[in-house]
Structures are given as structure tokens and as C-alpha cells.
Write a structure and sequence with these properties.
Number of domains: 1
Number of helices: 7
Mean pLDDT: 93
Number of strands: 8
Strand order of the largest sheet: 1-2-3-4-5-6-7-8
CATH architecture: Alpha-Beta Barrel
Distance between the termini: 15 Å
Strand content: 15-25%
CATH topology: TIM Barrel
Low-confidence stretches: none
Radius of gyration: 16 Å
């Protein structure tokens, strides 16, 4: 299972420093989501992140900034995906970009073949958005028709429910509130999540 960290949508003190520490602690994929930022603010934050990690970053906004930082990962939030012509997505695939998107309903998953992976949620009640309630029961299971689609669980991801994510047959988990609600504990909490995920993966491989 994969573990993805999504940025806080708002500015965080020493944010770039924390992001660098998360990468040093083993983070392999980071989604930069700042809906209120302009392109210059996105670029300024990226300049503060060690360029060694830029290839691990997916941009949610201002995709035009990506080539200047060697970023090959582009995320399409649901509304942006719906307003983007398929020809553009095909072209980005041909150029080697790794595309991801977000969905909230099972019905659309099979249509997202131009994307390398998809966030699906909220799976549990959101930590960062208290009003953002779970859309799926705890008995939910992604059946085998979705096995080739690389579906990442989003919403309410924390240490206590990573086992449930694996049991639901997701390919990974995306975390936000567990990391950023207490920025001074961000790296420590990430390490706990990563350790738990490694244990789950080892147990799965031993079956």
C-alpha cells in the first residue's frame, strides 16, 4: 500500500522545512494543494523544497509551473477534470506526465483510464473538514473490477484505520489532517503511519 501526504490548503509556519523532513523520513509522494495560491506563491514554496524531492511532488493547481521544477506529476481535482478536454490529457500522457484525479462515486472510476491513480473518498469522516462525512460503510470493499485502477483512499486517514483501508482493497491512503492538524507533530505522526503501513504490507505478503 502507498502512503501519500497532501499539503495543508493554508500556509503553515516552516512548511517547506516540514515537507523536507517528511521526505527525509521516507515520504515518496507529496500532493501540493493550495487552492488559494497564485502561481508565484506555488513557485516560491517549491523553491524552498529541496529540488532532490521535486520529482515526488504532484501539483493540484497551476500546472504550468511544473516544467520549471522538473515536476512530472499533475493532479486534476474533480471539477478541473470535468472541464478538461480528453485530448489535453492524452497529450500529457504522451509527454510522460503522471496524472491523478479525485472522485467521490464508484460509478465514475471505470471512466478514468487516462489517470495513473485516483483518490476516492471520503472513506471515513474527515479530520481536516469535520462536516465532510464518510460516503462508504466500514464493510465497503472495492471488488476485483477495480484492481487495475490504483485507487487511493481519502478522508479520515489515521493510524487506527489503516488496517481497514487495506481490508477494503484500496491501493493506498492519502493523509492530510493527521499530518497538519498538529504541524509540530507532523513528522512523528507520519513515521507512525509509515511504520503501520509497512507492517500491514508485510502481513499481506505473508498470506
Amino acid at each position: 500500500m502507498q502512503l501519500i501526504v497532501i499539503s495543508n490548503p493554508e500556509a503553515i509556519p516552516n512548511e517547506a522545512g516540514i515537507i523536507n523532513q517528511l521526505f527525509e523520513a521516507g515520504l515518496s509522494r507529496f500532493h501540493l494543494r493550495k487552492p488559494g495560491y497564485n502561481a508565484q506563491q506555488i513557485a516560491a514554496l517549491l523553491k524552498e523544497i529541496d529540488e532532490h524531492y521535486h520529482h515526488c511532488i504532484a501539483l493540484h493547481q497551476h500546472h504550468a509551473v511544473a516544467p520549471y521544477f522538473g515536476i512530472q506529476r499533475l493532479h486534476y481535482p474533480e471539477q478541473q477534470r470535468l472541464s478538461t478536454h480528453e485530448a489535453k490529457l492524452h497529450l500529457q500522457n504522451q509527454k510522460g506526465y503522471i496524472l491523478s484525479t479525485s472522485a467521490h462515486d464508484l460509478d465514475v472510476l471505470q471512466t478514468l483510464t487516462l489517470f495513473n491513480y485516483t483518490f476516492l473518498g471520503p472513506v471515513f469522516n474527515s479530520i481536516s473538514k469535520p462536516a465532510y462525512k464518510a460516503k462508504f460503510s466500514e464493510k465497503f470493499y472495492l471488488d476485483k473490477q477495480y484492481n487495475s485502477l490504483n485507487i487511493i483512499a481519502l478522508g479520515g486517514m489515521e493510524l487506527s484505520n489503516l488496517n481497514k483501508v487495506e481490508a477494503m482493497n484500496f491501493d493506498g491512503a492519502a493523509v492530510l489532517g493527521t499530518i497538519w492538524n498538529k504541524p509540530d507533530m507532523a513528522v512523528t505522526n507520519f513515521k507512525y503511519l509509515l511504520q503501520q503501513l509497512q507492517l500491514i504490507t508485510e502481513n499481506h505478503d505473508d498470506r
